[in-house]
Amino acid sequence: MTPGLERALSLIADVPDFPEPGILFKDITPLLDDATALGSVVEALAAPGRDDAGRPVVDKVLGMESRGFILGAPVALALGVGFVPVRKAGKLPRPTYAVSYALEYGEATLEVHQDALQPGDRVLLVDDVLATGGTAKATVDLVGMCGGSVHAVAMLMELSFLPGRAALDGVPLTTLLSV
C-alpha cells in the first residue's frame, strides 16, 4: 500500500451507534473532503480495470447507489470509460432490468437501464463497502442481463466478518481496506 493510500484510508472516521445502537459506521466524508486522499483512492480503485501496462481493459464502470456513484464516476474518468449508475427501484426513467435481493431486514431491488451496456462489454463494479454481498451480487446479475461481463469488483472497504466475498462466487475482488 502506498503512503498516499494509507493516509487516505486513515481519514475514514468511525461513528459509534449510527444509524442505530451497536453499529460502528464507517464515515468516508473526511476522505472525500481531501482531494489528494480522494485521488489516491480513485487510482487504487481503478487499478483492477487496467492491464499490467496501465491500459484500460474495461468498457464501463458501474457504481451502486449511492456511495458507489461518488467513487465510481471518478474511477470511470480515470480509466477513460463511461459510467453507469445502478439505482434503487423506480429511480431510472427509461426501461430497466431489475434484480431483487434479500436484506437482513427485508428486500431491496436494484435497476439498470436496459441499454446501459452493449453485449460483450467488460465492466468494473465500484462501491464503498462489501458487507453481505447482496448489492454486489445483484449488480453482477444485472450486468449479465445486459449481456456484459464483470471483469472485477473494486471496493473501498470489506467487512471481513460478513460473507460478502462468498456472494461474489469467484468474481475478482479488490478491497482497499478490510475491517
UniProtKB/TrEMBL annotation:
Pathway: Purine metabolism; AMP biosynthesis via salvage pathway; AMP from adenine: step 1/1. GO terms for molecular function: adenine phosphoribosyltransferase activity. The keyword Transmembrane helix does not apply. Residues 37-153 form the Phosphoribosyltransferase domain. Signal peptide: none annotated. Gene3D superfamilies: 3.40.50.2020. It catalyses: AMP + diphosphate = 5-phospho-alpha-D-ribose 1-diphosphate + adenine. Keywords: Cytoplasm, Glycosyltransferase, Purine salvage, Transferase. Its EC number is 2.4.2.7. It is found in: Cytoplasm. InterPro entries: Ade_phspho_trans (IPR005764), PRTase-like (IPR029057), PRTase_dom (IPR000836), UPRTase/APRTase (IPR050054). Pfam families: Pribosyltran. Homodimer. Catalyzes a salvage reaction resulting in the formation of AMP, that is energically less costly than de novo synthesis. This is Adenine phosphoribosyltransferase. It comes from Nocardioides mangrovi.
